[in-house]
Structure formats: structure tokens, C-alpha cells
Amino acid sequence: MDAADALALLMSPQGRIDPYPTYERLRAHGPVAQAGPVFYAVTGYAEADEILRDPRFGVMDDDLRDQFLPGWRDSPAVLSISRSMLRTNPPDHSRMRRLAAGAFTPRRIAGLRDVAVAQADELIDRMRDRGRAGEPVDFMADFAYPLPVGVICALLGVPAADRPLFRRWASDLTGVLEPEITSEELAVADRGAVELRDYFVELVEARRRAPADDLTTALVQVHDADGERLSGDELLANLVVLLVAGFETTTNLLGNGLVVLLEHPRAAAALRGHPEFAPDYVDELLRYDSPVQLTSRMSTAPTRYGGLDLPAGSWLILMLGAANRDPRRYPEPHRFDPWRPQIHPLSFGAGPHYCLGAGLARLEAQVAFPQLLRRLPGLALAGEPERRVRLTLRGYATLPVTVGEEPPVTDRGTPAGAAPGTP
């Protein structure tokens, strides 16, 4: 199978559900494979990592969109994403990112740990109550979505009552991030973009009338003080992206990760007894089944990667999920091993566009998995999970589980039977 055929297979529903076999077909053509006249697929870890950091590569800007996506300004979804830091290059990207970065410093993120712990405990209580009689509960709806959306909404100042609205809106909008999208899917994405924008128009006005100690107020005040630092369109677009990116990736990390842990009970037992292992576990879960599978870059100058000469204007799809399983970087890459050395997944990217909320996503997962395993030691899959037919953002639509019985608690506050295991 040549690289172009492998890439076409990857874009099919079958390829999107399980991309890993197709990644290996692409990898057989080298770490950078030509799949069209100026179109390349990158599966190598070292190559993807370097390209993400190379200033000769950028995201698709307005000029390139005019060339490749004529009429893109008529799409509310594409237009909204294009005005955010997600799809802009320096200096605009750097300017916008600096304005939001203060909310995601290591100190600020560490300060959210207690919020994440309390919300996770509350959600586990609800899961246990709903599944007390042995009935399955949907982990995605009952935990993987509400935990990260609650944390990011607290950061943005979104009222708790509004949080259930965002799952469908975000799911609709993020369809525009897929490498291929039908006109029907674009219409759905446009609907999500309009609904999210309308919501934030109202929230911005509310924060003008009554400022609060949240990121929305901070960005509104920057815009109102100096529209050149942050335009009105940029304000709304970045609020939408911060919200959506703030929970979509973490929701998928929690769902993908739980399935992996339940399929590896000895590793799960070790984490149950040793929550301090969580950082390495989360990094390996990110590597093993990344919630973000790909991104793209355009070259602005002639370059050479993977033994190929890439002309200016080359379009590269960086297969982050494939790079994370590059055997040159990770021996036995298809084996889940949280004890492997030097785990540095590319799931959050690298370079100038490294995910602003990566630290927050890691924190939430590091809190969630030990709590779930400790408080629900009988947690088990209940039937076949349903994957979303998406490639860029890989996750589950539904994930039915049974919660089992909560263990008795000892005098020291440790569940009985929580001794460390050996993976």
C-alpha cells in the first residue's frame, strides 16, 4: 500500500476508529512519507518534535486558507477558530497567548488541585449511587466530561448551571478540526460555533457589568482597555477555544485512559496502592492512546526532513499518535508500560503551540485515576465502548461501566485491600 492509499484509509471511518495499524503502513514509507505533490505524512517522533519547534513551519494562516479553502470566511466555525491562538502564527499568536498564559502558570494550576479532588469525589459519589444496583453508568457522561468542564468553567467564570450546554456545542464545533469534513459536518460545526459565540457574547457583557475574579473578566478588561492588544473577534474566539480545548482533550484522556487501565489490571492495582505513580502513568497513557492524534503545519521555506526535500508551501500532517509509538523512540511501543524511561509524549504538541492547558489536563488525570481506582476497586467495563468517528480528537462517545462496591475504610483512611500491586 503506497502512502497516498494509506492516508486515504486513515481518513475512512474504519481508519479513524483504529488508526494504529494504518500508522504502521505509513511508517513503512519512512518517518516522513510523501502522499501527494506537496503533501506529507510524518510518523517519526524526532521529525514531528523538531518540525513543531522549527520556525520555518507554521499553522495555516488567512493567506493559505484563501488558497486551500476558498469561501472559508462564510463558515462561522472556520472563521472562529482562525481568529484564536490555535490557528494563528507569530506575532499574533504570541500576543494572544501571553494574555491568557497567566491563568495557566504552574502555581495557578497547583492551586486547582483541591477543586479537582473535590469535584472528582462528588462525581464518584454520583456514579456509585447510580450504579449501586449493578446498573451500568456511562463514564463519559458521568465523569469524563463533567470533571474537566467543571474545572475550566471555574477558571473562566462560567456559571455551574450552564456547564451541561457545552458538550454538544463543543462536539459540533470540533468537527472542523478534522483533516477532512463533509458539507453536512461543516454545517453542524457552524451551528456549534454560532451557539458558543452567542453564549460568550452574553458572558462578556455580564462581566462588563459585574467583573469577577476569573479569566473572562481579565480578557474583557484587556480588550476594553486596548483593542489592539485583543480585538473583539479575538476575545470571543479565544474564550471559545479555551473552553473547548480545556475539556475536550482531558475528557478523551480520561476515557481512553480508563479503558487502558481496566485492560491492564495489574498496572491498575499498582496505581491504586501508589497514587504517587500517577504522573508517569498519565504520561504513558498520553503516549499509548493519545487524545489528540494529529496536527498540521505548512512550510514557509525549503527544508529537509526524513531524507526528503520539502519545498516551501509543503503541507505536513504530523501524526502525533504514530510519533508516540515510534519504535526508534520507544522500544515495544505497542505495549502499555508506565515504568518505561523518559516518557515525553507529543500529545500536547511542542514548540510555540504547545498546549497552554497541558499542565491542567495532567493535573486532572493525575487526580482522577487514583481516586477512581481507590474508591471504586470493582470498576469494570460493561459492554463494548463506542468510539467517536473522529481522528484528530480521539475518544469515546459512550463508555459503559459497572462501579462495584465501595471498599470499607480503615482507621487510617485507606481502603481495605489497597496494598500495592506489581504491574
Specify the overall morphology: globular
Distance between the termini: 38 Å
Q: Kindly estimate the percentage of residues that lie in beta strands according to DSSP.
A: 5-15%
* Radius of gyration over all CA atoms, rounded: 22 Å
Helical content (DSSP H or I, runs of 4+) = 40-55%
Architecture of one domain in CATH? Answer: Orthogonal Bundle
For the residues shown, what is the average pLDDT? 92
List keywords for this structure.
alpha+beta; 51% helix; 3-stranded antiparallel β-sheet; Cytochrome p450; single chain; globular; 423 residues
Architecture overview:
The chain has 423 residues and is an alpha+beta fold. It has a domain of 276 residues: Cytochrome P450 (Cytochrome p450, Orthogonal Bundle). Helix content is 51%, strand content 9%. The strands form four sheets. The protein has a five-stranded mixed beta sheet, with helices on both faces. The chain has a three-stranded antiparallel beta sheet with strand order 4-12-9. Strands 6-7 form a two-stranded antiparallel ribbon. Strand 6 and strand 7 form a beta hairpin. The two termini are 38 Å apart. The C terminus is likely disordered.
